[in-house]
Amino acid sequence: xxxxxxxxxxxxxxxxxxxxxxxxxxxxxxxxxxxxxxxxxxxxxxxxxxxxxxxxxxxxxxxxxxxxxxxxxxxxxxxxxxxxxxxxxxxxxxxxxxxxxxxxxxxxxxxxxxxxxxxxxxxxxxxxxxxxxxxxxxxxxxxxxxxxxxxxxxxxxxxxxxxxxxxxxxxxxxxxxxxxxxxxxxxxxxxxxxxxxxxxxxxxxxxxxxxxxxxxxxxxxxxxxxxxxxxxxxxxxxxxxxxxxxxxxxxxxxxxxxxxxxxxxxxxxxxxxxxxxxxxxxxxxxxxxxxxxxxxxxxxxxxxxxxxxxxxxxxxxxxxxxxxxxxxxxxxxxxxxxxxxxxxxxxxxxxxxxxxxxxxxxxxxxxxxxxxxxxxxxxxxxxxxxxxxxxxxxxxxxxxxxxxxxxxxxxxxxxxx
Length: 417
Hints:
Layout: H1 3-8, H2 22-33, H3 42-55, E1 59-63, H4 66-75, E2 84-87, E3 105-108, H5 120-124, E4 131-137, H6 146-155, E5 159-163, E6 171-172, E7 183-187, E8 201-205, H7 208-218, E9 223-228, H8 246-249, E10 250-257, H9 266-299, E11 303-304, E12 311-312, E13 318-321, H10 327-337, H11 353-357, H12 366-374, E14 376-379, H13 387-402
Parallel strand pairs: 2-3, 2-4, 4-5, 5-7
Antiparallel strand pairs: 1-8, 6-12, 7-8, 9-10, 11-13, 13-14
Helix pairs in contact: 2-9, 3-9, 9-13, 10-13
């Protein structure tokens, strides 16, 4: 978004900026002018190294989206009939969707009422010797109780997969999401805390073997096991045969699946490097907006979801719980009448049609169901919001919570990413 467009859209403060600015434009221009590949080149390698350092992960590998990151992570579990996977219901449907393509039994674990993250107490009742993995999300960016969750999962030999799509900029007991589980998936989609030209993702792991498999899958290579080959060599090793030479070097002794082309472009990675450097700025602005909204909520006995004292919440989503019979729905109606965009993120996954087809239904995760259908509220919290937009949002929220009409609108309301 240009400065002029931002001004027309609601007076974005010049020092807040939009999510993409001149530094990102220069980074893309440098890639286009360089005598270097536009795919699988040095910028991707630099972005992956920088992201691994930021997270504290041993290996970080870019892919084309957060959904692709999740698909690859779930492929690495090598699930078969009889295996079980425990997953959170309070997340975007892509977290669990790749499991539909497997024969594994999926168990949805209820959430903590104060965070909407996976409840470790509920998890203990679900894991068993058949559990291959536990898949969680750091809801809204608020870190889940990873020490307990990983201890429970690892005690049963299960891997922990972190969906970190919301958690870029978060901290948990001095560490960062992405280096807390066995596999971690990030999204750089346009609405996330940083972006790589609208789409992109990352998979992190401490395992060299899993990193090797991720690299093969994303590079359109076969996901299998290979040994040195005694197959006869081609008659001439010409340069144009380089990409086929592996056919003569190796024999495939086990096949898990095919690969795909999930290479994130050099231009996208260049933008990601700039955005990663700006992340503290983005998170500080989100946290400042959240503090303003917290103050309004607490005046009206509304519970904002906040992080534990030893964690940092980057507020990809701002979520509050509005107790009282029918009160949340009345607040939503009032916010809509004032032109304030408020959404509910996300419909409990186990109640989506495709999972109902698999036998899941109401009563499976009572806390998630009660809160989403009766109390859950999401409000805009985005670093491109101007001070005036934040002030207007707070005034409209206060009016809705008090049952009054919203004050007259002074400018276009903030969007809800």
